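Chapter review: from sequence to fold.
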Amino acid sequence: MDFRRFYGVALLFIATGIPAVYAGDSESVVQTDSALPIHSPVDELTQRLNGTQWHYESVTRESLVGESGRPDSFYQQTFADKPITFKGHEMLFGTACRLSWQPYFQTPIKYYHSNSTVELYTSLFASAGLNMPEKLTILETTSPVGECPIAGVELIDFGSKLAFLYEDKVVTYTRGGNKQATKPETRKCESGPQDMEYVYEHGAMTRCFYPNMSMNEAYEAHRKERSDSENLLPTLTPGKDLAVEKLGDTERVEYQWRGENVLHITQYFPGGTTEFLLESATAGTTVTETGFPD
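The token string follows.
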């Protein structure tokens, strides 16, 4: 029997003292036709998670189907640099994925449908050091925006840890401090292919991620680190498109906003162009630079 056909690709547990509220298999606790009580379980859960950030911790050796499955390096590469951040009823996964989440509450037997399946998942979660609670608080994710490998997951919270099923193994995240508590000064950068044939066709690309920095902060940090900083304006004017002639060594520099969180900058030189794409999210800002020679 393939137990995976009953579930989404991920689970998440809450072992805190939230009052028991039961729903049918397809019935959510949240009702759209009536206001929630001030101290409803949904309100308490939302307030508890709001503003928190969670970081990848580990993956189980055991698999749901009893096979070795993908290696640990696959999970490390997929999740290590992608924190989960809660903002109201939105969930941010790394910098490129945004989802909505909706809670509902069930007992293990109602959620897993049979005692044998409950025993299977109890064993699987035990291998991750997690105990199956008497009541489950499931966070159902919907409306993915961007690149979301965890789109459609259902999550369960253990207070200071989250656990979810991915590729038949249990992935655990641990709760960190407030997402705005620290601002690491180090950036993480990667470069694309540098051979000239590729560069002439696709451009020379470098992408840097500035953790916990707003777009303004990342822009100023990126500009400060450049030897040709005079080719960029000292500060940004959010929401205002600009075209500046003869800035530094450039013939022209254009600043074009694509909403509040995306900025495209183009530098025109006698020998080619350089483009910058700045994309901000709660976890930080990504700056992608691409140079195109003539």
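Two observations follow directly from the output. The mean pLDDT is 80. The radius of gyration is 23 Å.
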